[in-house]
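Summary of Year 1 activities. Much of the first year was spent building the evaluation harness for sequence design. The harness presents a backbone, in tokenized form, and records the residue chosen at every position. We chose the following record to illustrate the format because it has been used consistently in internal testing since the harness was completed.
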């Protein structure tokens, strides 16, 4: 089956270990776009954290796409929202209260890429999250926001050791109502229960009339497994987690060793 749509994870996949896009990746993506293949970044980041990479790759205009917030919102490269699954104000308040009670660093991300925390002593990882995503950081408590304010995701962002201690308790408290994913060592994210990268990819490609067999997904971590399970061709980076590799059809080289261009050369 001819591949018509490629979903690329960002951190650890599109970006090398210094946070840059390899020249070989830029060349491979350009070749795919020139062939009429749609290439979408599929990430836990908001659109503000992806737009400059998309521009760098030439993923622009109304007929190219991005899958953001681990699938909570999909949109065209020029900003039109295609699908969305947001978290209610009630659950936002419940997460905030839990974090406040247990003195855990916590923030939320709005659909328009604002990072909002009620913590006046802001954790370094929250600053880092805002910086890496080119996002504005606001200090606001739930009562300072509209009563119908919905969020794209809640995020416990702090040192890995502290998350290791609290992850099971957070899952017990919220796992029945929200999708919870450990995006990496320092980030535990809570999203609408329908949300994961696989669902976001499915919702978008169905709108475009593209079948799973015509989709290739490339990633490296546990939050990429759902899109691996959906896509007809699943590729894990050589630097990926062992769990992610078990769900891939093929393991390419690492994000520092032309992993994306090698996968494109093999399958396109």
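For this record, the design step produced the sequence shown next.
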């Amino acid at each position: 089956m001819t591949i018509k749509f490629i979903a690329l994870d960002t951190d650890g996949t599109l970006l090398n270990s210094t946070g840059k896009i390899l020249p070989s990746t830029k060349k491979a993506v350009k070749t795919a776009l020139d062939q009429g293949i749609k290439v979408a970044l599929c990430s836990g980041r908001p659109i503000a954290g992806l737009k400059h990479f998309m521009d760098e790759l030439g993923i622009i205009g109304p007929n190219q796409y991005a899958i953001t917030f681990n699938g909570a919102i999909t949109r065209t490269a020029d900003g039109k929202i295609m699908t969305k699954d947001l978290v209610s104000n009630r659950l936002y308040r419940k997460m905030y209260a839990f974090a406040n009670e247990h003195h855990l660093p916590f923030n939320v991300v709005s659909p328009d890429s604002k990072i909002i925390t009620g913590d006046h002593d802001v954790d370094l990882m929250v600053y880092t999250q805002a910086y890496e995503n080119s996002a504005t950081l606001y200090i606001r408590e739930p009562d300072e926001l509209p009563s119908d304010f919905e969020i794209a995701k809640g995020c416990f962002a702090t040192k890995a050791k502290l998350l290791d201690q609290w992850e099971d308790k957070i899952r017990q408290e919220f796992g029945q109502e929200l999708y919870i994913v450990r995006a990496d060592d320092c980030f535990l994210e809570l999203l609408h229960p329908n949300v994961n990268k696989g669902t976001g990819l499915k919702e978008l490609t169905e709108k475009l009339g593209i079948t799973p067999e015509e989709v290739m997904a490339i990633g490296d971590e546990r939050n990429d497994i759902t899109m691996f399970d959906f896509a007809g061709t699943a590729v894990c980076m050589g630097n990926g987690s062992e769990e992610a590799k078990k769900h891939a059809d093929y393991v390419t080289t690492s994000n520092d060793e032309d992993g994306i261009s090698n996968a494109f050369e093999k399958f396109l």
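Residues 228 and 234 are 5 Å apart (CA to CA). Quantitative recovery figures across the full test set are reported in Table 2.
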